[in-house]
Amino acid sequence: MRVGLVWVAAAALAGCATSPGTSKPSEYERLVRECAERGGVLHPIPGANSANEAANYACEFRGVSPRPTPGAGG
User: Fold this and answer.
1) pLDDT class for 71, splitting at 50, 70, 90?
2) Residue 50 and residue 53: Cα distance in Å, rounded?
3) What is the pLDDT of residues 15-69, one digit of tens each?
4) Which of 22, 25, 50, 52 could form a disulfide with 29 if both were Cys (CB 3.0 to 4.6 A apart)?
5) Domain extent at residue 35
6) Measuring CA to CA, how many Å separate 61 from each of 28, 36, 73?
C-alpha cells in the first residue's frame, strides 16, 4: 500500500516538473508583452479580481495613440 502511494506521489510530481526553457509565458507576461508592443503600459484595474487575467489589467497609452495589434491584419 505504501509503495503504491509513494509511486503515485512520485508520478504526480514528475508530471508537474518542466524544464525552464520549455515553459510557456504566463497570461500576465503575454499581456505585458502585447501591450508594450502596441506602445502602452499594463496597469492593474483597481478592485478587479477575475480568474481571467485580461479582465484584471488595462493597457494604458499616455500621450500617444496605440499602434495596431501585431498580426491583427489591417
Assistant:
1) low
2) 7
3) 555 455 567 789 999 999 999 999 899 999 999 999 998 999 999 988 767 777 6
4) 25
5) 25-69
6) 18, 10, 21
Separation between Cα atoms, residue 28 and residue 34, nearest integer Å: 10
Amino acid at residue number 55:
A
3-class state of residue 22 by DSSP: helix
Q: How many residues comprise the chain?
A: 74
Identify residue 54 by its one-letter amino acid code: A
11 falls within a domain: no
| 53-59: long-range pairs with CB below 8 Å, 24+ | 53/26, 53/27, 53/28, 54/27, 57/28, 57/31, 59/31, 59/34, 59/35
Q: What are the pLDDT digits (tens) for 7-16? A: 445 455 555 5
Of 35, 32, 33, nearest in space to 61 by CA: 35
